Task: structure prediction
Amino acid sequence: MKTLAPVLLCFAPSIAVAKSSNGNDPISMVISMVVMVLLVLICYAAVVMNQQTPEERETATQANIDKMEGTSFLVTYVNQSGNTRSQYTFLTKQQAMRHITSTFNRSSIKDNYNVSADKNGNIFFQRVFHNGRGRKEGKVLGGAILSVAT
Result:
């Protein structure tokens, strides 16, 4: 069923475009279908390549956490809109990681996040995809930043 939906979405718009334009010939219809299929494949490949496996995420997280040195750690939660949601300070890295994972589980993110780091040693936990429905979509948790508190 999941693979049938993109195929139907490819053919329906291309047939509508072929009928509404001046080119009602079969060649223009085939070309528009091929273009639509290519666009769907490119989008699907981009989504698949953007997701990290749990092993990759664990390796990236552990490697970056091991580099962090400090006496306290700051966890900053960020909304999908990019605004700061809340900040918490923890004495150990393990407490900070437990808080991040429990908050992600409560927010229904669970394992759907990527991990990256910047040059300053901050670790970013970013939600992979957003449900674009609802009025308060920008207020939903979008990720977390783990950094050394100064």
About this structure: The mean pLDDT is 77.
